[in-house]
């Protein structure tokens, strides 16, 4: 129930407004002048204050200025019998929500109050949400209060003060470049270049010249010396995205640049010194590439000094509501809409969706929903999710039983161990929360953990 304060030296006006607005369900009180109103505001927070402009002791403008120090979040509607353009403009300049002549219609006032409180609710909710993000869930443009993401943030804080090389791993769409930029932006090199290179997005025959540059006349079309991106990134950060796609020949040249901190342009004879942090990223298992001889082992260990694994969205479900609300605000503003929330059932659908495309897919879903939504809340029918993803039942139905058979109890124990370990990881090791998550008693969980040798 919204709290409203009426400030007017006319007792009759106070009584009329108190009765009219109380009938609308508001908690309404009044004060005969600005001094008494300020005293009330020191003890009670009011959502809306309706004040006369011309009053003894303290006029409405003076009251507004004093109120800013006590209750800056309260909305103010000024009313006066001495309407003038100048006083209206001054009231708006001082932060009044609106301006009203005392010859107003009660229904008009009720509508004005309703609209003001609606907007205040939106602004207040947005402010609380932004404060929540700022205090506990946001870091360098990334959102995540889950234990997994907090570990990522902590690693970034620790490594950013050094020039140590970093390797970021994670599925497509998890935000690996955001992590790379966070390392750079929170480092002493923040004012130095951040050079991003997609190793899989540049044709192999052009990649070497893009990375290391070339000398005039080194090949057809080389009409002038051209510095490479490694030179541009000197003393800054070089971000090598999709590092697994780097051809073997360039892996050798990159290894030398990392080891010797120098390289040569194509057609060059002089070494060029380079001092930069190299951040690489991949959505593939590079150790498998090392085993399969598609990625050099020595280069892998040179680049993978500090590993950062960005968890998929399905492994940090508690972050989904925060990210969703942030995206709703972002695209509501971009599209000029007043959508500020999502229905509980729509959120439930998001919480149970596996998000194969991770945060990038969630952003796509919310952007599309905001564009299609005609109400002020996202409804389930405007969430377009991939319905072709396999369910657990579908996955198990695809299993085949070998002709020689297998040990059912052993296979079930293996599955049980995997599920318990995943649940423990999801709850940060809390056995009570793990038991609740798995629908078993704490004693049953202890027994299963001992039996399966889970520590």
Structure in a nutshell:
With 455 residues, this protein is an alpha/beta fold. The protein has helices spanning 11-22, 34-43, 60-70, 85-93, 106-137, 147-159, 176-185, 204-212, 229-232, 248-260, 286-291, 297-303, 320-335, 344-352, 358-372, 392-397, 408-426, 431-438, 442-451; strands at 3-7, 27-31, 48-52, 75-80, 98-101, 138-139, 142-143, 166-169, 194-198, 213-214, 226-227, 237-241, 262-263, 272-273, 277-282, 306-309, 341-342, 377-378.
Describe the model.
The protein contains 19 helices and 18 strands. Mean pLDDT is 85; it is low at 391-395. Helix 3 links the parallel strand 3 (48-52) and strand 4 (75-80). The chain folds into 4 domains: 3-133, 3-Layer(aba) Sandwich (Rossmann fold); 142-311, P-loop containing nucleotide triphosphate hydrolases (Rossmann fold); 315-382, Orthogonal Bundle (Helicase, Ruva Protein, domain 3); 396-451, Homeodomain-like (Arc Repressor Mutant, subunit A, Orthogonal Bundle). The chain has helices at residues 11-22, 34-43, 60-70, 85-93, 106-137, 147-159, 176-185, 204-212, 229-232, 248-260, 286-291, 297-303, 320-335, 344-352, 358-372, 392-397, 408-426, 431-438, 442-451; strands spanning 3-7, 27-31, 48-52, 75-80, 98-101, 138-139, 142-143, 166-169, 194-198, 213-214, 226-227, 237-241, 262-263, 272-273, 277-282, 306-309, 341-342, 377-378. It has a 5-stranded parallel sheet with strand order 2-1-3-4-5, with helices on both faces. It has a 5-stranded parallel sheet with strand order 9-12-15-8-16. With 455 residues, it is of the alpha/beta class.
